[in-house]
Here is the input.
Amino acid sequence: YNPYVGETFADVLADEINKRCPFIDVYSRMDIKYYLLSKREILKRHFPELKEAELTKTINELDPVDIGRELGVDKVISGVIYDCHTSHHRTFHWWSSVVEAEVKLIDVDSGKVEWQNRMRLRKKFLSWLGTAEVLASKMVKAMEKELFYR
Here is the structure.
């Protein structure tokens, strides 16, 4: 179990978007971390009685569209990791990794989902991170094809 799979996949996806779609400006995850840290400090200042777990829960429940509005962006990418694991077949001694994710591209002005895709990928003899990189590439290719080459 890796609690940082979502963050890692987000970084891989952002890198893939930067590589394949140079005409799109992508906020780095570090910029988002600074934004969330400032939100956390504001909450601490205004609600000193909140415990760390409550602060974390509140920050995690922020709407990505609201964050996008505050940052002044046009679109927000949000996603969910449904499965991510590496397994070993004890009889034949091969191993494989599975990653399943859903990604949504949301228009900040309207709040509507402009593009959505859920994919599952299994790769033999590849780590979960390598599999996530291949999946991110497939997702960005699909997004690019559906949004920019209609």
In short: The mean pLDDT is 91.
